[in-house]
Amino acid sequence: MITELEMGKGESELELGLGLSLGGGTGAKIGGKSGGGAWGERGRLLTAKDFPSVGSKRAADSSSHAGSSPPRSSSQVVGWPPIGSHRMNSLVNNQATKSAREEEEAGKKKVNDDHQQPKDVTKKVNGKVQLGFIKVNMDGVAIGRKVDLNAHSSYENLAQTLEDMFFRTNPGTIGLTGQFTKPLRLLDGSSEFVLTYEDKEGDWMLVGDVPWRMFITSVKRLRVMKTSEANGLAARHQEPKERQRNQPA
Amino acid sequence: MALRLPSKVLKHILSFIDSNEDRNSVSLVCKSWFETERKTRKRVFVGNCYAVTPAAVARRFPAMRSLTLKGKPHFADYNLVPDGWGGYACPWIESMAAKSPYLEEIRLKRMVVTDDCLERIAASFKNFKVLVLTSCEGFSTDGIAAIASTCRNLRVLELRECIVEDLGGDWLSYFPETSTSLVSLDFSCLDSEVKISDLERLVSRSPNLKSLKLNPAVTLDGLVSILRRAPQLTELGTGSFAAELKPEAFTKLSKAFSNCKQLQSLSGLWDVLPEYLPALYSVCPGLTSLNLSYATVRMPDLVELLRRCSKLQKLWVMDLIEDKGLEAVASYCKELRELRVFPSEPDLDATNIPVTEQGLVYVSKGCRKLESVLYFCVQFTNAALITIARKRPNLKCFRLCVIEPFAPDYKTNEPLDKGFKAIAEGCKDLRRLSVSGLLSDKAFKYIGKHAKKVRMLSIAFAGDSDLMLHHLLSGCESLKKLEIRDCPFGDTALLENAAKLETMRSLWMSSCFVSFGACKLLSQKMPRLNVEVIDEHPPKTRPESSPVERIYIYRTVAGPRMDTPEFVWTLHKNPEIGVSKLAIK
């Protein structure tokens, strides 16, 4: 059996370096005391403070999400609680059923245009199309992510999640681009990235052109594209965009 | 005097040995036993598809009739393994097609399977009988159609929780027009509708069909029609129960179920309305397995159902069962061996707590045969864990998921160390353990000391330091799979216990503090390990002391793999080469 301790001694340079970066708490000695030390700058481990106990989190959430957004699902921490994706999708669909039924009861009188929408939602929810996690890729980032559409109620909501996912270092996970950048505006074309999506017909479109409900029934996957590359898309859809702006609200 | 068994005799003896663990031991005795064993092994299990090459497996086991393969690490189920990581079935299928044409059964778990792959299976194995794909992805219903139409002797086709590109329900019509040899069909994970007439005809011409799991698109009417044609079913997964309540529908359903006198296992039940549950009452007394984990039914309807299931051995249910429902299970379901309680709300901060530790305590007290537990709840206590351990020392699998990370014993505010100590000490046959809640290094000291038979251990948000990992790696003798996320260590412990890793199938660590330098060191010292760094940023661009996002370490005789995507670095054992991508594409 290899004497593991000898390994460490041979590479003392490396070991010293490791010890330093880990901060005071975790020493290189196995016999040493344990204790949570200071962590390096690069990524911060989730600690109990990131999970205030049951009850208070609701309060925190409602202050940060103005308006009636549905409670965020555990997509805040990737893969927690450890529920398989099939089951997770089913849970989220159940929530959609609940809120759809509540909405139907709440808003009996609908404008003609909107008349379609409650039906759409219930049709979806009766098992035909299972929404849930869809893939999101970003230009220049190899690892794709998944985002849960059912946990979002609007484009702003979705953009916020994506910005958190790709641009900000969430506690516990190293931001996928490793940068601390200023808040992006993925939706208004003012940043170097735009949000696009592939619809059921395989076309790539700019996100934001259609009403949210219609968007979630037709989106297959998302892509955060460099604005420079998205110019073609923007141009093609300028007309519909103009048309939409001129329509009465 | 040398005693040698003639190989004929040895062959005969070995024909009684099914367990691969035993066969592995047999093959280590001497060369001739190795040879005889390998030539007679029919069922081959490869727990990590990258641990060995397909060619080596085919060469070693010429009599192979059944192959089981596992690909991605378990944490892939929770989206922790990025898409494109690997786990491709094709190289295996290609190799087997060429070298093991008599293969009859293929079971794949967490692998990427393409339509080409499925077509290859259909074309290459003349006597193909069994295809089971669990948590697989990468194929469409076209591939399934190929299997259905070409494999004339197909007995089992099961798609369990796969991600399938669903191009419609036509695939069902591709089964042979004459009678089929189907024994089991599971398409519960598919989305789109299948034609009921196709399904009816298939069932009618499959006299051996015993297990049928429908997808949610099959309506209640469809279900009734199927049950009428297949009253011999022993396992049934229903479609969706979402339908308007009609008295005739209820009567028809009731009657259909009462004719299924051999039904032992029931699942599906999506959107089941409580008013329909009584239709199931007639089959309850015979049920040994009931999966209500997709049924949003509440109390007391659940109890009305469960109190009739006196033979139940396996129960999967949502936390809507509440503690009082579990109390009822404890008193009615005395044969229970396996209990899984899943959360009904995906949110971390659900304020209504339907089940508490008390529910599991009830079941532990009342169900003497209980040996496997998966339990999600918001918080727990040491006292409950101690009681459970005392009452159920026969536990083999204990997976507790306290949903709130770092949640201490909510009555005493202490870590759950004492509780898990009791479990490790008391349940001497424990083979699988998942821990959660607030845990200090001490908990792991106890686990390392007592959990001598644990083979798979899952840990999240726990521990204080490298000591934790050290306790586990140096203590748990039978450890084969260790998966850890968000814990505060572990260069030192990893390097100190490097040799242990070669005795294990794999180690997964994500969002821990393993540095790139340690990974390099480890791979240099341990050439028979593949040390995979899964990280967005090329590790070379950062200081060696900086932590990597994810590592996956596994023993292998196949060397570093050639199919890694750009975000996976398999560290080469040659220090000069350093990080090798082996991108000879």
UniProtKB/TrEMBL annotation, chain A:
Family membership: Belongs to the Aux/IAA family.
Domain PB1: 131-227
Biased composition (Gly residues): 20-40
Quaternary structure note: Homodimers and heterodimers.
The keyword Manganese is assigned to this record: no
Organism, as annotated: Camelina sativa
Protein role: Aux/IAA proteins are short-lived transcriptional factors that function as repressors of early auxin response genes at low auxin concentrations.
InterPro entries: AUX/IAA_dom (IPR033389), AUX_IAA (IPR003311), PB1-like (IPR053793)
Annotated Basic and acidic residues bias: 106-123, 236-249
Protein location: Nucleus
Keyword annotations from UniProtKB, A to Z: Auxin signaling pathway, Nucleus, Repressor, Transcription, Transcription regulation
Name under which the protein is recorded: Auxin-responsive protein
SUPFAM superfamilies the record matches: CAD & PB1 domains
Bias (Low complexity) ranges: 62-75
Region described as Disordered: 17-123, 230-249
Ranges annotated as biased composition (Polar residues): 87-98
TrEMBL record, chain B:
Encoding gene per record: LOC104714990
Protein name: GRR1-like protein 1
F-box domain segment(s): 1-48
InterPro entries according to UniProt: COI1_F-box, F-box_dom, Leu-rich_rpt_Cys-con_subtyp, LRR_dom_sf, Transp_inhibit
Ranges annotated as spanning the membrane: none
Keywords: Auxin signaling pathway
